[in-house]
Design brief:
The protein is built from nine helices and twelve strands. By secondary structure, the protein is α/β, with parallel strands linked by helices. Strands 1, 2, 3, 4, 5 and 10 form a six-stranded parallel beta sheet that branches. The protein has a two-stranded parallel ribbon with strand order 6-9. Strands 7-8 form a two-stranded antiparallel ribbon. Strand 3, helix 5 and strand 4 form a beta-alpha-beta unit. The longest helix is centred in the first third of the chain and has 35 residues. It is globular, with a radius of gyration of 27 Å. The two termini are 32 Å apart. 38% of the residues are buried.
């Protein structure tokens, strides 16, 4: 139990009382210690209050809203002649990245997103760039070990050089195809390059099997095969899973946690195939077993409302709905009126203004 604070006069009174009653004497050193402790506690409280005010002022200035929505963009092949609606040309991919950079977005990885480790500058917005299926068009290394021109990684690095602060990072959900490489040595080379350059590697199952309607044993086995493929090639284990075709198993949590044989997995998040921006990891609506992604496509056909161009337009028109950082990865900043939406386990990080 904490001791009550007393002033110098009260401390002196205690000394006098002790003397009159014959109690153990309270000398001047005791008095000074009590006064000093009280002063230190008061100074510490004032310092804490000042620090919190500074954080609130900074968050207010940045119009921070770390309970806002985050676009998680889904890409597949980046090729000159698209053969389906999932493909993008290098020009289209470059144009979308340029837009993101100009509108204040900063790429983060899927692992950073699901763990809430979102360390971007104040006033900026996170975006998660993801690639499915491990296509050679996403990453091919030339004879010098650099990404080949017009591959997705090369384009991402080019845009980052033109826009300081735009991090050249993304998440690759890989399968056995592994960027078109067949030998373990070549596959290790690709994953090692990605890992060493700050990219994130996630599981997309081993053979891109549709998990819908399959038994728990089958689901666990297929996810574990993909998990084992990655961990045999590099020492870093995947933190996230992207469901093939976006189809969830009959019990959704099978995608998040499971075991087959001597290998188990316990992921921070499972990603779907498309549709809407994703909720902040700090809100009650965040659902680790079914995180939405946005298909990368222009506003046409069925993408007129629900693909990347349309959703980026909507977030631009509704800035109060998107995640805006206060610049401090250790805090969760937001306007006070949004407090009911926050998950209680992050209360110790809250900065409401």
């Amino acid at each position: 139990m904490s001791r009550p604070k007393i002033g110098r006069a009260a401390a002196a009174a205690l000394v006098t009382s002790a003397a009159l009653t014959g109690c153990m004497p309270w000398d001047s050193d005791d008095e000074d210690k009590v006064v000093s402790a009280a002063a230190k506690a008061k100074a510490a409280a004032a310092q804490k209050a000042a620090a919190l005010k500074a954080k609130r002022d900074r968050a207010a200035k940045a119009k921070a809203n770390e309970l806002g929505q985050i676009p998680v963009l889904m890409y597949h092949r980046v090729i000159e002649k698209p053969s389906n609606t999932d493909d993008r040309t290098p020009k289209q991919f470059r144009t979308e990245l340029e837009r993101l950079a100009k509108e204040g977005y900063v790429p983060i990885t899927a692992a950073e997103y699901v763990t809430g480790n979102i360390g971007i500058p104040e006033g900026r917005h996170p975006v998660v760039i993801t690639f499915d299926d491990a296509s050679p068009s996403q990453l091919t290394l030339d004879g010098t070990g650099a990404p080949a021109p017009d591959t997705a990684v090369a384009i991402l690095q080019e845009v980052a050089k033109r826009h300081p602060g735009f991090r050249p990072v993304a998440t690759f959900f890989v399968t056995r195809d592994m960027f078109g490489k067949s030998t373990p040595e070549e596959q290790t080379q690709m994953l090692t390059w990605l890992h060493d350059n700050g990219f994130d590697i996630g599981n997309h199952t081993y053979a891109h099997v549709n998990l819908l309607g399959r038994s728990k044993k089958e689901v666990n086995a297929e996810i574990v095969r993909g998990h084992r493929l990655i961990t045999k090639l590099i020492s870093s284990a995947p933190v996230t899973l992207a469901l093939p075709y976006g189809n969830q198993p009959s019990t959704k949590t099978w995608g998040l946690k499971g075991r087959s044989g001597d290998v188990s997995y316990n992921y921070g998040g499972v990603f779907l195939a498309g549709y809407t921006p994703a909720p902040s990891p700090f809100v009650k609506d965040f659902d680790a077993v079914g995180i939405p992604r946005i298909r990368a496509m222009d506003k046409k056909g069925d993408c007129a409302k629900f693909c990347s161009t349309a959703w980026l337009d909507w977030l631009k028109q509704n800035p109060g709905e998107r995640f805006t950082s206060d610049g401090d990865a250790k805090t969760v900043a937001y306007p006070k009126f949004k407090a009911p939406f926050m998950v209680k386990r992050f209360t110790d990080r809250a900065v409401a203004y």
